[in-house]
Amino acid sequence: WYSGIMEAYHATGDPAYLAQAQQWAEKHQWQVGEERSGFNRQFCTMTWMELYLLDSAPEKIKPTIDALNADLPYAPVMGEVWYGHAPHPTDVQYVYADSLYAAPTLAMLYKSTGERKYLDLLNDAYWNVTDTILDPEENLYYRDPSYIGKESPNGKKILWSRGNGWVF
Question: Which of 49, 114, 147, 149 lies at a C-alpha separation of 20 to 30 Å from 28?
């Protein structure tokens, strides 16, 4: 929702959209989400990052950086799955397409901090998800590995429109 609010602000310049996003961020004290999936925890931080890029107050990104660097469940680790779907966020069988929707957080963190590790985490996660569930013939993603090889009642592959939309 709030990535759409931020896009509405960018498209219109209407300060009401910016104020709404700012109020939401302050209400949640700029914290990462509480979901049991690594990337899902970052969906809200995309808004925090956009707000930071408009006004670089450190308190806007410190909780995100702290959470990503903490030794906590679902925190990113290079070479490991930390972004699978709950309740199995570290199992490659639970990697899912729309997790990549939050990947821009890592790109914006790199832009904000200059720390290459955020691009490395992004690259690692993107290619793992892509190598696991992208159908190379259709160039579209399955929802998760459990859909690979399954067919719809009309004999077509079951690719996930919402997840592909979020990836794009």
Answer: 114
Q: Give me 71's structure tokens.
A: 């030794």
Whether 115 contacts 109, CB under 8 Å: yes
Residue 35 has pLDDT above 90, yes or no: no
Q: Minimal CA–CA distance to 56: which of 108, 2, 120?
A: 108
Q: How many CB atoms lie within 10 A of CB 145?
A: 15
How far is it, in rounded angstroms, from Cα 27 to Cα 51?
Answer: 14
**Once rounded to an integer, what is the mean pLDDT over residues 55-62?**
96
d(C-alpha 26, C-alpha 13), whole Å:
21
> Token pair for residue 77?
């680790």
pTM (predicted TM-score): 0.89
Judged by DSSP in three states, 65 sits in helix
Rounded CA Rg of the chain? 17
- Provide the residue type at 33 as one letter: G
Confidence of residue 38 (pLDDT cuts 50, 70, 90): confident
Residue 87's CB: how many other CB atoms inside 10 A? 9
Are residues 43 and 61 in contact, defined by beta-carbon separation less than 8 angstroms? Answer: no
134: helix, strand or coil: strand
